[in-house]
Amino acid sequence: MNPFIQSHLQEIYSTIALLIGLLIFKFISTKAIKKVGKISDLNTSRTKLIVKYSSIGISSIGLVSLLVRLYLIPPFQGWTTLVGSFRLSDMILLA
To answer: Is the dihedral of CA 24, 27, 29, 35 positive or negative?
Structure first.
């Protein structure tokens, strides 16, 4: 496998998960907005405008969260750096 892809595999997986989650959320919210618009007898152009604004809002939230994830949160280095040298024997001694 390409060394670049291998070194950034966690970021690639988190980006794919974020995009899939956003697409599902946008689909569900669009269906809900259209259903509420139909039930409350709103004008169809107003319902389309609400869907457009909600899609823009969801996309901008996704973009901001993606940028925060990529540039502000350090990449996950593994459980040894997260926990340190904490072993099971240390837990037994603490108890």
So the answer is: negative
